[in-house]
Structure formats: structure tokens, C-alpha cells
């Protein structure tokens, strides 16, 4: 839980520290949605599709964060109620932790109530932090992917729909201005959260391993660690979500590069137009992707996760972390 606590505090501090740049990105997204009112039906569908993708990940995180955080207090309260009905009442902690100085007194009703309330507040705070932060970058990336798809489609028609060379150059200018804005958004996200994502990639691997270890230990003691099952799948989503959206961004940037090359520039004799296309090709040679300090975040990175699980499981076994599950007779 110390890893979760530090991660939540780190995310909260980043949101506060980078609130100005995040606010600017949100304003750009709102302006893009307002501009979409005048788009064609096909372009509106593209914007709507990626907006719904961002909405879906927000709803998914609300459900996952709520279930994962509330599973701990619900299980504790249900078990205490069961033991009370059975006539063998005993206190069941929300999180079975060891405390310095007060560990011998944690089952005293007053101390137990204070600890229970503190852990419950932490669970609520962690849930709200995950709901507020984790969908943020995927929503921004989903929007930029939609904008890159719009630009790709416009590039394929830029020479066909242009009535004269002046209009073609003007359209290319608008496309380049929008591309600069998109790259600025991605650079801002990269700069703001590069250290956090490096931290998340490492710690989430151990969280998955530790929760899997707790599930196995619970099964050995004829108990079902329901709360760690939900925690396990939540940790996987925590790792998979940025990998999926960053990989989608990489695919859309490659699609843009192919669109630039296939737009029909070789049939245009105008030197200015050819230079513009050449600069765009040069800029898009390297795929756009969210990176950590040492590696890109993509589905290939997620595919390497099982190796991290094995290392985490070995670490858990070597530390002999055992938390017997509470069973119902």
C-alpha cells in the first residue's frame, strides 16, 4: 500500500504543478470541438469516434477505481456482520497491516475505529486520484489521434480538391499549423509525465506480482481474496491503458506519414509545394509516441510485462509475504 500511496501523492502533485499547461491543452481540445461543427459528416464521425473513445476510458476508470477501492471496506464490514450473526464477533481490519508502536493495540475498539476510518479515507482518496489522473493522458492522446486522422484524410485530397495553387498552399499552411499544435501538445504531455510513467511502469509490475501472490496465498488457505482479485485487474489496466493509447498514437503518426507520401506531390511542379511536403516528410520520419525515460510506451512494452511478473513473484516469495485470507466457516 505504500507504493499506491506514494504513486497517488505523486500524481496529485503533478496535476497541481502542471495545471497551467494542462488547462491550455483542455482549451485547445474545446476549441477543436467547436471547430468540428463546420466539418463534413465524415470528419464529424472521426472526431466523434475518438471523443467516445476518451469517454469510454473515463467511464471504465470510474468503475474500476470504485470497485477496487470499495472492495476492501465492503469485505471487512460484511465479514464482521457475518461473525456477529454467528455469535463469534471479531474485528476485521480494512487492510491487515502492521503498525509501528501501536501494533499490539490495533484491536482495541477505539484504535481499530481510528485505523479503519483512516484506511477508508485513504481508499476514497486513492480512488478519486486514479479517476482524476489516469484517464487524462489517454483522453488527450485519443483527441490528438483523431486530429491526426483528420489531417491524413485532408492531405490525401489536398491536391484533388484545390482549385488553384494558391488555395493548395493555403490548405497546406493550415495543415502544418495544426500539426505544430498537435506536436506541441504531445511534447507537453511527454515533458510533464515522463518521470511518472517510468515510475508507473516499474511499480505496476510489482503491484501485479504482489497482488497475484496474495491471491495464490489466499487460495492455499481456502480463502478467496476478492479484494486482491479486483486490485490485480486494476493494476493490469493501469499498465495497459497508456500502452494502448500510445501505440494508437504511433499508428496514427505512421498513417500520417503514409498520407503525406501518397498525396500526389510528385505530380506538382511547384517548388514551394514540394519543399513543404519534403519538410512534412522529414518531420514525420520518427513516429510520435509517449516515452518513459528509457523506453517507448506501446503494446510491445506491455508484451514484456510477464517477465516483470516473474521477477516480482520471485521477490514476493523470497520475502515470504504471507497474509492468510479470512475464511468463512
Automatic annotation (TrEMBL):
Keywords: Cell membrane, Membrane, Olfaction, Receptor, Sensory transduction, Transducer, Transmembrane, Transmembrane helix. The keyword NAD does not apply. One of its GO terms (biological process) is signal transduction. GO terms for molecular function: odorant binding; olfactory receptor activity. Pfam families: 7tm_6 (PF02949). One of its GO terms (cellular component) is plasma membrane. The chain crosses the membrane at residues 60-85, 108-133, 194-216, 228-250. It is a multi-pass membrane protein. It is found in: Cell membrane. The keyword Membrane applies. It comes from the Eukaryota. This is Jg21898 protein. It comes from Pararge aegeria aegeria.
Amino acid at each position: 500500500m505504500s507504493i499506491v500511496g506514494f504513486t497517488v501523492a505523486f500524481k496529485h502533485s503533478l496535476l497541481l504543478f502542471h495545471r497551467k499547461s494542462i488547462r491550455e491543452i483542455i482549451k485547445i481540445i474545446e476549441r477543436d470541438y467547436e471547430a468540428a461543427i463546420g466539418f463534413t459528416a465524415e470528419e464529424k464521425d472521426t472526431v466523434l469516434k475518438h471523443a467516445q473513445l476518451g469517454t469510454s476510458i473515463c467511464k471504465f476508470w470510474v468503475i474500476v477505481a470504485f470497485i477496487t477501492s470499495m472492495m476492501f471496506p465492503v469485505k471487512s464490514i460484511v465479514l464482521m456482520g457475518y461473525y456477529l450473526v454467528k455469535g463469534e464477533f471479531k474485528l476485521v481490519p480494512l487492510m491487515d497491516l502492521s503498525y509501528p508502536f501501536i501494533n499490539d493495540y490495533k484491536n482495541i475498539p477505539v484504535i481499530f475505529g481510528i485505523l479503519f476510518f483512516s484506511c477508508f479515507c485513504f481508499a476514497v482518496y486513492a480512488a478519486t486520484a486514479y479517476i482524476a489522473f489516469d484517464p487524462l493522458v489517454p483522453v488527450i492522446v485519443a483527441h490528438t489521434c483523431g486530429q491526426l486522422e483528420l489531417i491524413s484524410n485532408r492531405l490525401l485530397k489536398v491536391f484533388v480538391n484545390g482549385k488553384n495553387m494558391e488555395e493548395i498552399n493555403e490548405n497546406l499552411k493550415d495543415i502544418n499549423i495544426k500539426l505544430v499544435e498537435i506536436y506541441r501538445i504531445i511534447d507537453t504531455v511527454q515533458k510533464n509525465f515522463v518521470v511518472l510513467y517510468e515510475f508507473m511502469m516499474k511499480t505496476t509490475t510489482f503491484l501485479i506480482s504482489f497482488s497475484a501472490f496474495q491471491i495464490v496465498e489466499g487460495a492455499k488457505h481456502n480463502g478467496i481474496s476478492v479484494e486482491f482479485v479486483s486490485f490485480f485487474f486494476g493494476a493490469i489496466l493501469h499498465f495497459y491503458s497508456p500502452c494502448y493509447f500510445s501505440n494508437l498514437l504511433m499508428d496514427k503518426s505512421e498513417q500520417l506519414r503514409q498520407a503525406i507520401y501518397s498525396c500526389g506531390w510528385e505530380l506538382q511542379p511547384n517548388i514551394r509545394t514540394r519543399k513543404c511536403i519534403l519538410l512534412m516528410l522529414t518531420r514525420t520520419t520518427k513516429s510520435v509516441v509517449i516515452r518513459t525515460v528509457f523506453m517507448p510506451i506501446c503494446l510491445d512494452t506491455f508484451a514484456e510485462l510477464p517477465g516483470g511478473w516473474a521477477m516480482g513473484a520471485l521477490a514476493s516469495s523470497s520475502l515470504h509475504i504471507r497474509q492468510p485470507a479470512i475464511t468463512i466457516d
